Amino acid sequence: MNYHEPVMKTESIDALGIHQGDIFVDVTFGGGGHSKAILEKLEGRGHLYAFDQDEDAQRNIVTADNFTFIAANFRYLKRFLKLHGIREVDGILADLGVSSYQLDEATRGFSFRFEAELDMRMNKEGALSAKDVIQNYKEDQLVQIFSQYGEIRNSKTLANKIVSERTYRNINSSQDLISVIEPIIKGKRNKYLAQLFQAIRIEVNDEMGALKDFLKNSLEVLKPGGRLVIISYHSLEDRLVKNFLKTGNFEGKQEKDFYGNIHRPFKIITKKAIEASHEEININPRARSAKLRIAIKQ
User: Fold this and answer.
1) Contact, 8 vs 273, CB < 8 A?
2) Interacting residues of 39 by C-beta distance below 8 A, sequence separation 6+
3) What is the pLDDT of residues 28-39, one digit of tens each?
4) Taking the model in full, what pTM does it have?
5) Are 195 and 212 members of one domain?
6) 220 and 95 in one domain?
7) What is the CATH number of the domain that holds 150?
8) How far is CA 186 from CA 155, 202, 253, 275, in A?
């Protein structure tokens, strides 16, 4: 299966500060690249728990006594660790967004490059598909999704075009959708389509809601001194992560206790997000938009 080399693998693994005997969680297992690197550092000691809701990822499961795979969305981090008798961990790694494999697997419908049914479910058992969004969402709902999740400038025109066209034709596949909106694409075509497909994917998988749940869970399960390492790929994700690490909430509002002391749940290691090197971007273009943030629980 074509899972590419993980983005900023060396930087993210080093950021975890791995010691043998520690307990870690890789909440975005994918092709197992990060997990294998963590296991190498653990040298058979400690334990690694890995989460992934995509059943295709299970084909990459690592065989090791100190490795446990959990087939679940990372938004349920605390619940599933508790089921395994784990209440605290030393470090958590999250490589957000869609994987290279999912983008390259034509049948999943994540990419505008292939003709495929509009699906985009990371969990194939999920109730909502991309086709449901395009066929059934109201126009104002579509406008909100396209503008908020895709930052598409002509979101109103785009939503109106889709709603008008779907009254007399089915929009079932990626090419159906592209043919409908082709006349109103603004700017660079590929960038526009990437933004559109990103917006739909985020809605289908409730990625923002899942990220918020995960971040709150991570604060609860990390030991004091435990490390949280997160790689994000678009401004919405990065803003949520940045605000939460700084303030413990998603709005970035400073909260103070009775004595006026500012609540700081984490010590932030990366005042400015780490970005991939030019060398890595040349090898793996997906790394171009990646931002790595590191924090230690206070």
Assistant:
1) no
2) 48, 62, 64, 66, 67
3) 999 999 999 999
4) 0.93
5) no
6) yes
7) 1.10.150.170
8) 10, 21, 35, 29
